[in-house]
Amino acid sequence: MKIETQDLTLREAKLPLRPVDRETVQDRVYRQIKEMILDGEIEPGRTITIQRLSEAFQVSAMPVREALRRLMAEQALMVVSGRSVGIPTLTPERLEDLRRVRREVEGVAAAWAAQRITPDAISQLNDLVEDLEVAARASDGARYVPANHRFHFAIYELAGSPALLSIIESLWLQISPHFHVLRTSDNWQTANEAHREILNALKRKDSKRATLALSRDIDDAATALRRLLT
Prior knowledge:
With about 230 residues, the protein is mainly alpha-helical. Helices cover about 65% and strands about 5% of the residues. The protein folds into two domains: about 25-85, Winged helix-like DNA-binding domain superfamily/Winged helix DNA-binding domain (Arc Repressor Mutant, subunit A, Orthogonal Bundle), CATH 1.10.10.10; about 90-230, Four Helix Bundle (Hemerythrin (Met), subunit A) (Up-down Bundle).
């Protein structure tokens, strides 16, 4: 007796769309701690612990430990003692190195942003400049430092280069926490004058003046920090 087999055609099963969140817990923790550093929430001279961060983010110690390891590799944090980490000491040599590199990289971003500026971006930057001036008059570091971060990065994002933005962010992770100490100098007022110059240059789509004004802002902050360090 001959048994005939039936050919079966295999078809791909259709599944409901279920997007997977590619960002891991470690990535989220890393991003949140990074924002804390950029916004000045971790000031020089203060420490944070793995336990405190785990409690704040409601996660286990492992993703916090891995995120901190990444940030230490980027020279944004350093081990202070035991399980405590803090902002690395800023030496005059490191400050000068950061100043020179920032001038080159951020100057390029400002020039590119001047060619891509939009009315909405100008309105956003104008609001941020006003916020910076209010914070400076009140010597309010908790308001000034994050507003300064938002102002600058609103410009750098306009440059339209994720690669350039990543480089700038790595530089800011090393310098922005120290902007807190500038409240004891007159730099915040001086910086706000430079911010106005940057904004006016962007409004005119003047790449050269935007770069010069941004360089002045970087140089003035470095000079003030150098005085405080010595």
